[in-house]
Amino acid sequence: MSLNEYTGRMATLKVARISDFGYFLTDGEEDVLLHKNDTDREFEEGDEVSVFLYVDSRGRLSATTTTPAVTVGEYSWVPVVNVNPGTGVFLDIGIKKDILLGKDDLPVFESVWPSKGDLVYITLRVNRNNLIYARLASDQVIQEISVPATTKDFNKNVHGHIYRTARVGSWMLTAEGYKGFIHESQRRTEPRVGEKVEGRIIDVKEDGTVNISLLPRKQEALDTDSEKIMEYLESRNGAMPYSDKSMAEDIMDRFGLSKSSFKRALGRLMKEGKVYQDKGWTYKKENN
Fold first, then answer.
1. Which domain of life does the protein's organism represent (predicted)?
2. Which domains are assigned to the chain?
């Protein structure tokens, strides 16, 4: 087996000779350099060394004693460290060289590509030129590592990371290991792949997968929506040209709320005596 075939994998090699800048390791037929910058240990000729083989920035096969977070055939969550529009995102797997997750393995729309700091669940792949790339885990892989939820988990708050997204909805793996689906109606915006989200379980399926909502509970939403209206009123010295008779499109453009949500929040504020309406306008009461 050629050393190149170990690219992206761990290998145990023997120190063949030592130079000023590192160690030449061998499998008995081929050599590879373990640069001193790629190890924090010292070795002698004949020592066996466990290394990860990768291609450096100059296209040379190299070794490191750092065990990466992920290797070919193995999966792990790794952080995004840089985004290159049109090319893909770069990931930190623990070695000195960042690994590219190319645009062909990412959603078509860059708006839902991972951002710096997001976590993605990936493995490594090696192309015909012996270069290492990242590959997102498939739905089948996520299914294999997931654990089933039970009916006791209904309405439970959960958090986790998005591993797949589409117009119809998004898929996430929760911290507990539940595989969850977020229908488009249960999210205000489409989350990024790799983004950490928080929600609640709104259904537990027979197979143990769950449906999740990213929308706040009604009381929480009412509090937030009411605060949003009051903040806007205060920014306009207590008067705004919006009321429960306003057009739904105008309400959405200004507040990002549906008309029904706006009317509920406004009704609450009026009931609490904080605002009143007059001729299509809403006013903050002077004693509030």
1. Bacteria
2. 3-64 (2.40.50.330), 76-137 (2.40.50.140), 141-213 (2.40.50.140), 218-284 (1.10.10.10)
